[in-house]
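Posted in: Structural Biology > Protein-Ligand Complexes

Title: Requesting predicted complex, magnesium ion in pocket

I'd be grateful if someone could produce the 3D structure tokens for the following input. Sequence and ligand are given below.
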Amino acid sequence: MLNKTPTDVLSPPADRTPFVELESVQVTYGKSFVALQPVDIAFSDDQITVLLGPSGAGKSTLLRALNYLVRPSSGTVTIRDIGPLKNSKAIRAHRRRTGMVFQQHQLIARLTALQNVLLSRVGNYSFLRSLLPLPQSEREWALECLDRVGLFDKALERCDALSGGQQQRVGIARAIAQRPHIVLADEPVASLDPASSIRVLTLLRDVCRQDGIPAIISLHQLEYARQFADRIVGLSHGSIVYDGPPAGLTEDVLTKIYGPSR
Ligand code: ADP
Ligand code: MG
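-- Reply #1 --
Done. Output follows.
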């Protein structure tokens, strides 16, 4: 195109291909327990999706199918720029670019916040190289990530000396140190008090918005889902029973998600 306007040059059109797309993905545990009924769903950049549902609805299963921590028993997961996850090379490439945040943050208690963040970088080096100290640039990057979650001054504290909310923020720093293209968070505030929960969810949302990457967050608390989601995917007994904005969570929809005895 010859006649580009300055606006075209400054803001190229966003890539509208979904970042991740699931086609007929089903998950079965053991011989026959279907934890996720076949689903077709896609997740795009710059969108905070909350997977909402009661315990056992299939939130963690769907979330983990997105990077094959749980292997679908059938169907296809396709990642933009990588393609279908059908071999270990594709799965590894996708996992390297996926920031995971867990309920129990999975930090090593006796290591400092900085060491925990640096550990996430070790996987980017060969085994032999990873036995040596990481380059200074990695330390600087880890510190930048801790600064982004407001914990620069806690970098050298052991994780077991930090509060639950601070530990989860280290978990977020570790996830963003991966320079992720997507963030998956499984009940990231399940064990936090309300003030810390709001701080952690605000941080996750802001980081993903600033970096323009999709975040998929499983939650069982309706009020946080309403407050933080752009899109809500409601699950019940392994099926998606709602997919839409928070404003569409009517009493009828909530009964579909949580059942009549809510
Ligand atoms: P949620 O995250 O919404 O609580 P899960 O995805 O963890 O739900 O679980 C969905 C269903 O699958 C539940 O009935 C749960 O008991 C079952 N389930 C989860 N993980 C396993 C597993 N590894 N083996 C067998 N059943 C499982
Ligand atoms: Mg779960």
